[in-house]
Amino acid sequence: MNQKRTNDYNFIDRDKLYDLINKKPASKNEISDILEKSLKLKGLSIEDASKLLQIEDEELYQKLLKTAGYVKNEIYGRRLVLFAPLYIGNYCSNNCLYCAFRKDNKSIDRALLSIDQIKMETESLLKEGHKRILMLQGETKGNSFNYFLEALRAAYSVKVGNSSVRRINVEVAPVEVEDFARLKKEKIGTYVCFQETYDSELYKIYHPEGPKADFEYRLNVMDRAMAGGIDDVGIGALFGLADYRFEVLAMMEHASHLEKKFGCGPHTVSVPRIEPAEGVPLTNNIPYPVSDYDFKKLVAIFRIALPYTGIILSTRESESLREELFNYGVSQISAGSRTNPGAYSDKGAHSGSQFSLGDHRNLDEIISSLIDKEFIPSFCTGCYRKGRVGADFMDLAKPGLIKEFCMPNAIFTFKEYLEDFAKEETKAKGAKLIEKLTSNVSNEKLKSNMKNVITKIESGERDLYF
Fold first, then answer.
1. What pLDDT was estimated at residue 401?
2. What domains sit in the chain, N to C, each tagged with a CATH number?
3. What is the pLDDT of residue 386?
4. Is the pTM of this model over 0.85?
5. Alpha-carbon distances of 377 from 31, 271, 407, rounded to whole Å
């Protein structure tokens, strides 16, 4: 276990949050006022969010979803960012009761990819059309931090034709400020780490041993990451370990803590639910199950409470539910995912998966479906490479200026995908969508600039962005 640090502390007021979710439900008029206020795109207080979490009336529920849809469209438009997770090892010294990678699980085969294997996995992802990946591994001494840094360099070094990985987000066990500074030098994107549950009492039960058992060390990881120079961080909870209403408020409290201390909250929040996993009994008897009804509610509340924070949805969820949630707030999705090391380059890889998938479609199938619903599949990395990150990103996002970059850049990366990787049917209908979206741009100068870039992409130029 990590040595106790004097500056680690629990800034989540557990009693206060449980008191809020157990209060008498707000009146219909009060809920309507909160929803009306949220249309100003200024976010919500924890107290207001707690009232929305108590919604059970169907009319108010539908109004909540509609409001979230409005906020989503105003800030993100029809864009959906796509990425793929790249698991490089499933050995772990923790014994988390909800995870297939836990050290006592004898039901799965273990693997730690070599650098050459990591390059092969990256090559396979590039051949599918991916440009953004999330790299992650189990927590154990065998998966050293130096190895992880080497893995990042290896993935960035791979080229397939004129294609290469443009952004690697990372999900790696908490480290000290000095190591985060090293991570920053590797030109990573967002640093992601889930608290799993913010209930400190339940956390003890689910994490009986291993480095992860230290609740406060994990809770303060984003403070160390940002102190080490990481611009964008991503937080999350594993829904099903505690009352989902508590977790939502706790994540908001975590976001508020970072905003107050560093002037910038999390770049993303993730909302995974517990899914079945081999050798993990808890996943078949979830302590605090979250229904689809409540799941849609919590996604909608996150969207209006933290309007400029990305919401990430994984392939844990079914195709139909994912596509519904795109309308209520989700802005980033994994696609064509594999959660066992080596499975992209070796479809028959026997290494154990972390959890079961709900959406088994490949990247082209997902993009084809998005086109049908007139969403813009985006692999954009322009903001990160132009330095529009952290507080600078929020300074552009909150007055709406970021849209001048995001929509065009999304279309450019979408166009690249269509030219280089899409099946003919996907390419044809994707071209029609791009033509429609471009023709609808009211700013004539922007429209002209976009058409010029699209022409350049058709002529073979790549990696163009505003």
1. 56
2. 72-394 (3.20.20.70), 400-458 (no CATH)
3. 73
4. yes
5. 34, 20, 10
